[in-house]
Amino acid sequence: MKLGLYYSTRGWHHPDYLVGDNKFHTGTEKNPWAKVDLGAVKTVNAVVIENRSNERRTEGLIVSVSEDGQQWQEVWRARTWETSWVVPVTHFAAGANAPGCRARFIRVETKNEAPGERLLRRITVFGVK
C-alpha cells in the first residue's frame, strides 16, 4: 500500500522520495505538522516516532488521529524529549481505554509561542487492515 505524507509548509511528499536522515522537515512556523494518510480508515494500535540523533526541535510533540481529516482527537502528548517514542493508540469503551482506534490520518505536530522548524527521522504506524 502506498501512503501519502503531507507537511504544513512543504506541501505533499510521497515516502518513496524521502532519503537521508530528514524524513520529515517542516518550514519555520508556529504550528508545524506532518500528516500521514493511510488511504482508508484502519485500526491503528500504535505509532512509533523517531527523532534525528541529538535533534531537540520536537519537544512538546502531539499525536492526533482522524477518520476524515477534519475532526481530530489528540491521543498523546510528549512530556519530555526522547530519541524515540512508542505511542499506544487507544479508544474509550465501557469505562476503560481499549487498544486500537479507527483512523485514516495521523498528525504529528507541535504548538509553540515562537516559530520553528520540526524535523523527524521516521513515523511508523502499527495496526490492523
The DSSP helix count reads 0
Strand content: over 45%
Radius of gyration: 14 Å
Regions with pLDDT < 50 over 5+ consecutive residues? Answer: 16-22
CATH superfamily: Galactose-binding domain-like
Multimer state: single chain
- Any idea how many domains? 1
Fraction in helix: under 10%
- Identify the CATH architecture: Sandwich
Largest sheet: 8 strands, antiparallel
Distance between the termini: 11 Å
Kindly describe this structure.
The protein is mainly β and 129 residues long. It has one domain: Galactose-binding domain-like (Jelly Rolls, Sandwich). Strands 1, 2, 4, 5, 6, 7, 10 and 12 form an eight-stranded antiparallel β-sheet that branches. The radius of gyration is 14 Å and the shape is globular. It starts with a strand and ends with a strand.
Question: What's this, in brief?
Answer:
The chain is an all-beta fold. It is built from no helices and 12 strands.
Descriptive terms for the model:
mainly beta; Jelly Rolls; two-stranded antiparallel sheet; globular
Write the SSE topology.
Blueprint: E1 4-7, E2 11-13, E3 24-25, E4 33-50, E5 62-66, E6 73-77, E7 84-88, E8 90-93, E9 96-99, E10 101-109, E11 119-120, E12 122-128
Antiparallel strand pairs: 1-2, 1-4, 3-11, 4-7, 4-10, 4-12, 5-6, 5-10, 8-9
